[in-house]
Amino acid sequence: MAQAAKNLIRITKRPVKTKVKMGGTTLISEALIKTGSTNLVPKVHVKKGDLVMVISGSKEMGKGRTGKVLNVFPKTGKVIVEGINVVTRATKSRSPMGKSGLIKKEAPIFACKVMLYSTDQKKPVRAEFRKKLGLD
Questions:
Q1: CA-to-CA distance for 4 and 49, rounded, in angstroms?
Q2: Which residues contact 134 (CB under 8 A, 6 or more apart)?
Q3: Could you tell me the pTM of the whole model?
Q4: DSSP category for residue 123
Q5: E strand or H helix at 81, and its extent?
């Protein structure tokens, strides 16, 4: 007698996307579990074009510096900020006119490491004050 395949759900603490592993086990992040919710996408408090300040991390990454949000990735909970967390990559030339050498570009950081920045008050503010700042 064959046993029916069960859809097992395993919860992890890491911030990973929902994925199905071998054997039919579904891996879900603890942060994505909301009771009675069908949409398992975390909410990000910043939008593209917002001015933000990095409030945690290392000095090399850009702690204490401000920049404009270039991209938002809600599925992973990360953002790309202009001039923050710049990484250097070595690339080879694949075509005769291709560019090779060291290329610098911004890498994504977790959205929880940034706060909205108010140019009037010259300090970071909570996202609840978005309407007061006129960012809506």
A1: 50
A2: none
A3: 0.64
A4: E
A5: strand 78-81
Taking a C-beta distance cutoff of 8 angstroms, is the pair 76, 44 a contact?
A: no
Burial 34-65 (b: 16+ CB within 10 A, else e): eeeeeeeebebbbeeebbbbbeebeeebbeee
Whole-number Å distance between alpha carbons of 3 and 31 = 32
Instruction: Give which of 8, 13, 48 is closest to 25, Cα–Cα.
Output: 8
- Total Cβ atoms within 10 A of residue 104: 8
Domains, the chain, ordered by start? 1-34 (no CATH), 51-92+101-133 (2.30.30.30)
Q: What is the pLDDT of residue 84?
A: 93
Residue pair 104/44 in contact (Cβ under 8 Å)? The answer is no
Q: Does position 32 have pLDDT exceeding 70, yes or no?
A: no
Residue 44 has pLDDT above 60, yes or no: yes
Q: Are strands 26-29 and 19-20 parallel, antiparallel or unpaired?
A: antiparallel
